[in-house]
Every structure is written in structure tokens, then in C-alpha cells.
Amino acid sequence: MVFPIKYVYRFGNVNTDGDRSMKHLLGGKGANLAEMSSIGIPVPSGFTISTEACKSTIDNQMAWPESLFEQVLDGVRHIEAEMGQRLGDDKDPLLISVRSGAAVSMPGMMDTILNLGINDKVVEAIIKKTNNERFAYDSYRRFIDMFGNVVMGVGHDLFEEAIEKLKKEVNVKQDVELTAKDLRELTDRYKAIYRKETGHMFPDDPLEQLRFAVNAVFNSWNSTRAIKYRQISNIHGLIGTAVSVQAMVFGNMGETSGTGVCFTRNPSTGEPKLYGEFLINAQGEDVVAGIRTPSPIAELEKKNPEIYRELLNYTSKLEAHYKNMQDIEFTIEDGKLYILQTRNGKRTGTAAVKIAVDLVNEGVLSQKEAIRDLVDPQHIEQLLHPQFKEEESKQCTLLGKGLPASPGAAVGKVVFDSKKAEESEEPVILVRIETSPEDVGGMSSAEGILTSRGGMTSHAAVVARGWGKPCVAGCGDIVINYKNRSFTNGDVTVKEGDWISLNGNTGQVMLGQKELTEPVFGKEYHTFMSWVEVVEEMKVRGNAETPEDAAAARSYGAVGIGLARTEHMFFKPGRVNFMRKMIIANSKKERVEALGNLLPFQKQDFIEIFQEMEGLPVTIRLLDPPLHEFLPQEKEEIIKVAEELGVSSEMLANKVNQLKEFNPMLGHRGCRLGITYPEITEMQTRAIIEAAIELVKQGKVVLPEIMIPLVGSIEEFRNQREIVDRIAQEILSEAGENLDYMVGTMIEIPRAAILADQIAEEADFFSFGTNDLTQLTYGFSRDDAVKFLPAYIESGMLKHDPFQVLDKEGVGQFVQAGTRLGRMTNPDLKVGICGEHGGDPSSIDFAYETGLDYVSCSPFRVPVAHLASAQATLRKQEDTAQVQEAPKALEA
Length: 892
Ligand code: ADP
Ligand code: MG
Ligand code: MG
Known about the structure:
By secondary structure, this protein is α/β, with parallel strands linked by helices. 47% of the residues lie in helices and 17% in strands. α17 (418-423) links the parallel β16 (409-415) and β17. The site of adenosine-5'-diphosphate has 17 residues, from β5, β6, β7, β11 and β12.
């Protein structure tokens, strides 16, 4: 039948309508189920209801769009035809699962219902057919639990209590020890719970069950926890969840059945070996829920080598097909293997880089593909996080050792509930027996996560790895007591509020606050970054004002310094008082004298920085901040400083008062300082040029770029440039040396951006100071924005803090206009960006699109910026390639 809007897409052995490119419509799960069916992976038949149907239903107060019900019926007939079974049949009944799945994976955030289609009549048919009464009632009771919980909101704990009670009554420990008779009894008790809690009989019409289940999955898109997860993970622009309805295969049919999850490579380390867990005689949710402790996948090899080989065959096929490490769910039904899900596996930064390099070496991927698809800027960022010092783990009170579920070092105070973690002002470690999707808020606020139960694929482990948060999971050495708000290991008791340290690389849990050290990089990291630096077209510089920072930036691959803030040098002890003398000077003579005292310090700083950056450009910004920042503000401080300076405290207090401004950020700062006190610009130029000459004399290459801040007009720039050039020429001709230096400006005032053509006629380079540019474009004071920005972001009025992620729409226009106009009058103009945005991937992408020559960011973000720049280059190349290919496609 043909429907006006197609909402249902089939997958299975014979008929498949979808493929992996349709994630937006079919969700990741649905799209990949379709893809797997068409490449010959054994996937139980099914169909996927599109995200559009979800959106339409939610928008229309849960009324299904026209023809959806007919299309779903068609889908059910498709499954029935492929399986040779019928829903609700009294001889060979079909059971189905109803599964959620959005375009972006949100582990465990939405709902899934298994074994749908059972009722009292059907269960009898299953018993007859399988001759396995235990299995039949195990499936039935699971269905009532899931349906009751997901569809009707009956607390899962009520069912849990009932099963625990029954286990006590019949004196068994494990669920699997319950007999058929026990499970039949349990099914009756579950039905009674359902009736009591909902006021209804358990629905026995399978189609009605299905309709309810689909609606419940639709609704789970907007559950509080799903909304929160999307907020935390910055997932925007999705319209809803798809719903995949699929024939059940049973891992709970006995000893020859089972279920598991695996990664094609180790998601923590990247080691190229199948990695995962499985449970015999169980259904999917048992593995993740941590009810029974699963066995490592290697044991499957011993238990059933044939199935293991078959699994390995499919997992390798999937990895090669997707050209990426896969996270795979499988079920074995009475000796037959089915794959139920595949997706690109979440992994740590270390694993991401290793897998990328390995897959290239194995010939699966090109270097460019590896850069584009296998490593995120966040992965690189993770690698730059500090680690514990080696000695620390030797000399510590070890509280226990769990699984190294997500690497990194975390230090914090113990809290036992997520709400506390969210509210705490101090760093915390969230300690839970296990985590559930309800905990995501707390997990995101915590420095690290510790669980006493659950494996490497438990909720805590998966979510933590996805976010790059350190996690130690399944630490059985500790016993958590929520009531006493403490946990114990033997005689050691750790109370809420005590400090602990987690080592996510080793799984160690240590008492106290352990010290951290710089990260170390493996050889794959260096290989990967060398590929990145070849690909990137836009260069990356570092922001640095000390020789140490400069060295760090260079070691991370910065090809210059994009911003050296000179004022930071004046804050150092021994200098700040000369600076203060300069500020409080009553005459030019006094000021010049104080500046003269600062000169040797400043010169020495530049010598050291130039040495570190030999052969690379160094952009030095002349004095920028309002002068009051250098003076004491508190009364006692004023008295103390006055004494040090040898002036009266009244005089100093007066001066402090005089310098007070209503809007310091719009006040006497930037080039306005150099214009009113030219001797400041003179001294700074002298320090720069003299430092450079010293190195030139030693035969070294120095490339100083002198940057005038906060310029709004060509007149301002001209005024300052004249001073710089005059002093530089004086010094150079006196020394008889030549030096290539540049003079440019920061573009951070909107006026300068739109008059950039005028300024560029006399400037050698521009550097967009996007912090001030954002402040002045929005009219948001950087220092006061905390009062309202959070509300803007919470309500969705702003997607991001514009001081962190460049506002392309507005502020970006000034960057574009400034670049275009500047290059119009000065084609050689060098243009870059410095400030917070220089290290943010989406802002870097924008900088590349705008055609900037470089971005500059803090040294530790340089590798992140490299990757973002290379990825931007590859995206562009791809777009161009598509445009060029288009005519060919038309011809064909
Ligand atoms: P999630 O998105 O939370 O992983 P899934 O839809 O993947 O939810 O379902 C969870 C588990 O339920 C799966 O890992 C699988 O083990 C089990 N499951 C889902 N559908 C089926 C099915 N058709 N047959 C057997 N088990 C299933
Ligand atoms: Mg799943
Ligand atoms: Mg500025």
C-alpha cells in the first residue's frame, strides 16, 4: 500500500527500506539495523517508526498521524511473514521488542520494552511450542515488569521487591535458580502489583500493548532525564526518537542461550582485541542493569568456541564496514547468534587516538579519514588532563581497586547522591552502588565517579567515557552504606565529605587528596598529531607571556605566539611597585623615571620569550588594562603599599580615587594609555627592539609583531605606530642592525572592524580580540554577564556562552567584514584570532571558513586547535569535492 507520508521502514532478511545514512529519520539504532540486514548480518526482522512520527504525535497531544496505525500494522505483517509466526497466535506466537533510538546515542536515557505480545493464552502456546515452561514465564514476568514500569509508571522497585521476597521464600540466591513454578507464581504476583498500582487489568490484546508501548517510547524522548542528558551533552536540533519494533530472539532459553555486549576494540586503551561481557541464560537488560555480574567475553571462547568465532567474524565485518570501532549488542538463542545493535563505540581520548592510528596502519582508513571521523577535539583535550604522580599510588591508603572504566585523575569529596553532587560548590566524587540514568546531572557535576557494582559496560562506565570523566566501576572492595552516608573497606571507613582520589587509568581508589602532574603522551599521539599538522591549512599559535608558557606552546606544536600580554609581566613582585610609581607619577619626568626602572625587566622577559620561539613570530601586545588594576583598593593594602612606595597614604588613596572609573572596560585603557602617556609605548618598544637586537647579534632569527590594543580609528593607530617606528628606527640605526618587525592591531572594537580598510592601509596585521569584540558587540559586560547569561542559556535564548563559543551570526560578521575590508586595501595583511575563542572547535571552524591565517589559544589547547583546524580543512575539501562531482552525477 502507498501512504502519503512514509512513517514505517522495514528491515530483515528479505525486505529492507532503510540504511545507515538515515539516522535522522530512523535513529542510530534503526538506521544501523537496516544497514546490518542489507550486508548479511543476522538481525531479527523488524521495522522502524520514524522520528517524524514521534514529533507529530507529541505535537498533537499523543494522537497518531493519519495512516500511522495502518503502516504499523503493515510492519507487523512484514515481521510475521519473515518469521512465519503471528502476533497473539495460539500456536506459534510472535513476540516483539519495542526499542527507542535517536539520531545521537543517549545511553539508557529512553525506554525499551521486551517480550511484547504475551498474554495468558500466548504463554500457554509458547510452553507447548518450546516445551520450556520456565522460559515462557520468565519472559512473561519480565514483560509485565517492563510494560508496567515504562508504560504505566509503576515503580520497578515494587517488582524487584516481589522477586526478592519470592527468592527468600523458596530459598534461592539467583534469579536463574527460580523454577518454572516459581516464575508462574511471580507472574501472578506481578499482575497483582500492576492491578493495584494502575487500577487496570494487565492488557492482553497484543496490538493494544504495542500501541501503548510505542507511545511510551515516544514520550520517553521528553522525560526529565532525557532532556537533561541532551542539555549536558549539548545535543540540539533533533526532533524525537524513532521506535524500532523487532522480533524477539531469546537469550533466556537455557544454558545454550545468552546475551552480551562487546566493543571491537578496548574502549579504554584502544587495544585491538574484542572486549566485552556476556551472561548465559539472560535477557539484554540483565547485562546493563548489573543484577548479575557478567563474564568477560574471553570466556565465551572457552564455553562455546564456535559461537565465539562466529561473533568475531561479524564484529570484524562490522568494524571494517563502518571503518570505526563498534559497540555491539548480541543475543544467542539456543545456539544461534543474532546481532541486535551496532554503533560507533564511545571511547576515551587515549583509545580514540590509538584506534585511529591502528586502523590507518591496518589499511582500513586513510589518514584524512582518521582525522575527520575517528578523533574529536574533546578526545585530545582529555589526553591533556593531568595524571597522578607515580609515587602517589605507591604511598597511599588504598581503599580498593575497581575497573579502570574511564581514565584520568579525579580528586574530590565523597558524596553519595546526585543531587548533592549537583549542589556542591566543592569538587566531589560521586560514589554509588551503581548509577542509573537519573544520576546524569550529578555525574556531570562530579570530578569523577566510583561505583561498587557493574562492569566496563555499565551505565556509569559508558556515560563517563562518553564525557571523558574519570570513573572507577565495580569496585567490590568497598561496601557502600547509603543510610550511614559512608563506605567501608575492612576497618577503614570513609564518610561523606572525606577526600578521595580516583585513578581511572588503574582503577585505584585512594584516600585523601593526591597530587597531580603533567600528562604523558604515547607514540600514537605523536604520529596522529604529525598527520594533523600536515593536513591543516590554518595555523595554530599559542598565547603565552612567560618563557615557560612559550616553551609549552611550542612543544604542543604552536608555530608562534599570537598574544603575549605585557601587563602580566608587570604584576610580578619586584616590578609591580615600579609600575605603581609610574601610575601615580605627577609629572612626565617621574613617569619616565619609573618606566626606566621597568625597562630592564621587560627587556629580559622578551629576550627569554624570543629565545624560546626562535624562528617563529611573536605577537606582543602593548599595555592594555585600565591602570587601577595595578593599585591596591582596600584601605589596609593602600597603607602598606604607600609605605613601600615612600608616599603618603592620603596621596595614594587620592590617586586610587582619581583612577576609579564608571566603566573601566570602556575607560582609560588600551591604546588610550599609550596615546595619553606616549612614554609607555616608547619604553615597551625599546624593550622589544633591544631584546630582539641582542638575539639578532647572536645570529638568531627573531620575528616580533608589535600589537596596538583597542584601536577604534586609523588616527589612533597612526599615532601609536609613529611612536613605535620612530623608537625602533632610532635603536636599530644606533646599533647598526636590521630587523624585520611588524606593527599591527587588535580588532576588538566594532568601529575598527567596519573601518578595517582604512586601518589596514597602515597596519601589517590584524588579530581579532574576540573577547572584547563580543563584549562590545553584544553590549554584555564580561565582568557582569554572570548575572544574566546563565538564565539566557537555561531558557534557550542563547545556545552557548558567547564568550566561549563565538557568535557567528553577529560577532562573526565583524570578523568577516574586518578580514574582507582589511585585505581589500592590504592584500598581504596577516589575520588571526586570539582570546578564548581561539581554542574552541566551532569557533576555529568559523575562523577557517573566514580565511584567517591562524588562531591563537592557550598552550594547553594548542593540540585541540590543531585537530579542529585540520577537521575544518577536510570538511571544506569534501564540500568542494562534492560540488565538483555534482555535474558527473547528473550526466550519469
Ligand atoms: P538501549 O538503547 O537502552 O540499549 P535497546 O533497544 O538496545 O535499548 O534494548 C536493550 C537490550 O534489550 C538490548 O541490548 C537487547 O539485549 C535487548 N533486546 C532488544 N530488542 C531485542 C530483541 N528483538 N530480541 C532480544 N533482545 C532484545
Ligand atoms: Mg542497546
Ligand atoms: Mg581586548
